[in-house]
Amino acid sequence: MSWSPTSKLLHWAGAALILFLLIHGFWMTGLAREARFAQYEMHAAVGYLFIAFTLARLVWRWTHEVPPQPAGAARWEVVAAHAGHWGLYLLMLASALSGWALAGTFKRPLDSVFGWFRVPPIVQDASLHGAMEQAHVVLSYALALLVAVHVASAFYHHLWKKDEVMRRMVSSGS
Known about the structure:
By secondary structure, the protein is an all-alpha fold.
């Protein structure tokens, strides 16, 4: 059994958003102070969309069948796969929610989603800015690390185990 076309779309769109947010977040912090705020606004707007996207993805995953682990998979591989996937969901949400909390600690809140609508802050205490920023950075680096493990695991299955784990997420057939 392969992943459904919708599951594949959600997976790859989510991967693109994560990659964008991680690279953009790292890049924008190196900008001159006066140039940063506009980038923070865009980063927050994409982050808010990512939260909604991730929640929709979780609902989809909970309401649709998931392909079984490969026949003959060792127990540790099954446990690691489940822990890795739920760890990714946890870190996607934790990183994004910590960013949302951080957005409310700026002198001028980052609460607009590209001017379409406003998002209420979940934290509005400027004295928490440093702690919120540190939490967001740590959670984002943890997410980046787990994404790297996820990608390495996919290649492990494809190149060494030669099973269908990676092919069922990249193939066009369902």
